Amino acid sequence: MSVRRFIQDRKGASGAEFALLLPIVLLFLFGIIDAGRYAWEFNKAEKATQVGARHAVVTNLVASDLAAYSFAVQGGIPQGTVVPITAFGGISCSDSGGGASCACTDSTACAFGTTADDAAFGSLVERMRRIMPAVSRENVVITYSWSGLGYSGDPNGPDVHPLVNVQLQDMDYSPLTLFLFDVDVPLPSASYTLTLEDGTGTESDG
């Protein structure tokens, strides 16, 4: 075959073009799938957080001292009056690997102990895992903050009915397009808040 005929030969051109375009087409296809999976995972994170908040307001308080503390007897606030924000700044509970622990979000307004109910925290996490199995205890933070509801010396439950916020954080998503590079993409934090209801029990129907 002459050099001219070799140069002008177009046999196999379609196969070569296909081989060049295939990686781009696959990357585009997997990118579309990844976008859908990312939205699905974020939606699961939000739903798990909503279910977790619902569970938290109708089951035992993780900040167990808050359930037993009397603002009338121990806090000196006249019985029957609304507990002021100056007496209850808020409590945040989480687990960094050594079991659930709680701490005041405002140290000047936390005269009582911050004992954590580890079983209640574990129950909350397990409820969230029914929606999103990848959730771990380290991903969950629950915060009790002042709402203006509740009365000092309430004989039927906690003196305060705080706003209960459940936050899901530090969750990752593993995209197909970056699988070979072992790279994860962080999911945005999800957060949901409800007002405490009875704060007693171990199961919820939410």
From TrEMBL:
The protein, known as: TadE/TadG family type IV pilus assembly protein
The TadE-like domain, residue ranges: 12-54
Top-level taxon in the UniProt lineage: Bacteria
Organism listed in the record: Aurantiacibacter gilvus
